[in-house]
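Methods: example folding runs. The two proteins below were folded one after another, and each record is reproduced exactly as written to the output file, sequence line first and structure-token line second.
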Amino acid sequence: MSNKDTIGYAWKGDDCAAAVQALEQAKNLRILVVGDLMVDAYLLGKVNRISPEAPVPILSASRRERRPGGAANVALNLKALGAAVTVAGVIGADPDGQDLRKAMEDMDMDTAGVLAFDDRRTTVKTRIMGGGQHMLRVDEEDDMDLSADQAQRFLERLAVVMGKQSFDAILIEDYDKGVLSPQVISGLLHMAQEKAIPVSVDPKFRHFQCYTGVALFKPNLKEFREGLGLVWEDGDAEAMERALAKGLSRLMADWHPDAVLLTLSEHGVRIKTALSDVQQPAHPREILDVSGAGDTVIAVATVLLAQGTDAATMAQVANLAGGLVCEKPGVVPVDLHALLDEVRRLPIQA
């Protein structure tokens, strides 16, 4: 890994070539995605008036859509990049779960790691969209941690999956819906370490501190702030910078990741390793919907991680990809050709 040891760095021709090559070689990878599976449901239409019953808009609904969401959306992003994907998670023994499994299989995902439990509902997030604008979201879910018995059954399934196939990386997608209990996290990281498989993690707050010794840890700003108990006044840029630097150093020292990729919304991304601390600014975009951007960032980063791409280059490309999907309404996977075009258009600096 090269030592680009300042905040911001010059994008070189070699960086561009390495990024393009890694994206084009994603088709040779197999990645195990472990996490909270859910259904992203949409009720779409137009709003033309306010209800006479209450001061709320009336949606004139025109269609409904259902897509694999959560960890399944991360898997969709990996598929869109060309990688082969095995999905592992828990669904309910209900029609929503059956539909979700079939949808993933129809999209050529291996669902050998998916278990259905009678006493859990499949998570469904329904987004109400009017004229391309996100108006309301309704969640139906059971988000308690798996019981000890359920966690053990899930770990046994993971052991079988990992015994039958080799993986270039494991991507853990935690939405705090209970599948990634401390017992599951510990067992999964142990299996990955035994097989020397690099692990990337997109964490949430509940079990933030359980992910030790991973190759890539990717919190967003809210998760990072809450997970480490960082405090600063909103709008105080200097205090925020001091808190971020302190938090990153603490995370590296206490959790021992190889790299931390911190997404900062309109401020871009920041990646820290033992040798470097680099911030990539956000690229100007017409933002329609930020839903699913984090899924895209971790998917792209994992594809590059699996191929040993330089950390700063990985952050640059993942940052581009996250911005691209924000230009479309709803949760959508990244377009590989559009991403390659964006990478090639980045200005080369001497």
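Second run, written to the same file directly after the first:
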Amino acid sequence: MPDGAASVRADRDSAEAFAGVTSPGTPSWDAVIDVSSKPGQVRRAAEAFADRARQYVYISSCNAYASLSEAGIEETAPLNEALDADEMGSASEYGAAKVACELAVLQRFGPDRTTIIRPGLIGGPGDPSGRTSYWPMRFATPSNADGRVLVPETGAPTSVIDVRDLADWTVRLIQQFTTGVFNASGAVMPFSEYLAVARATASYHQETLAVSNAMLTEHGVSQWAGPGSLPLWVCDADVAGIGALSNAKALDAGLELRPPTETMRDTLAWCRGRGSAVVLGAGLTDAEERELLAALG
């Protein structure tokens, strides 16, 4: 924990979860920052802090939007229907759960005391999902003796917001008591440009094998994230805008973005610092990439 901070352990599914920080004799709070995707947890927190905190900052998600098919989605775009349950029954309800959480905060704090942040892809050093560490690591450590790397021939535009930039901005929103709804995403770039940044960061000068979307799909390569994927690659028109949110409102509200090269460099350094123990969590294993290179090359 940072100096001056205290850790309070509680079960957020319990009705008494916040007794230790809201009971008589405890201080009032400048702000609550909440990342939960369980509507029941957020409803209990909003109720507990309604008279004990000035501002509620809820970290939502771009998945709250009803459609991610178009580039340039703004904060006024239609949302998913809110989830009725206290928690998701499956991952497919994630967007609906986030909408329900947003509504829970707004109902107790009102728009004048609520800040909702809908991030796109968050990355940087420490990324536990492996989505933003896969490409710099893949170019830095090819799976084969020839040094070839499998890449998509094309892909939808993408963006990554550095977790440090998001955190710094969130604190400033509290310091300035800025409320409202904001998309939080990095600078949008063509997928080929993102790969070029990864190559340069890893000082990769070998040959890549660019494969069509149809061939990658035919061979079972997944999009976006998870095992067996090419992370951040999107060819499905239904989600082609997931990496191209409008961040104009956030920039006007003081969001500052470091260059993608810095995020990539620090992510690669973090991975290398963990050595062979690093678990990417997303992408192709060395064996999977070698097999695909042999089949498609």
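Comment on the second run: The longest strand covers residues 53-59.
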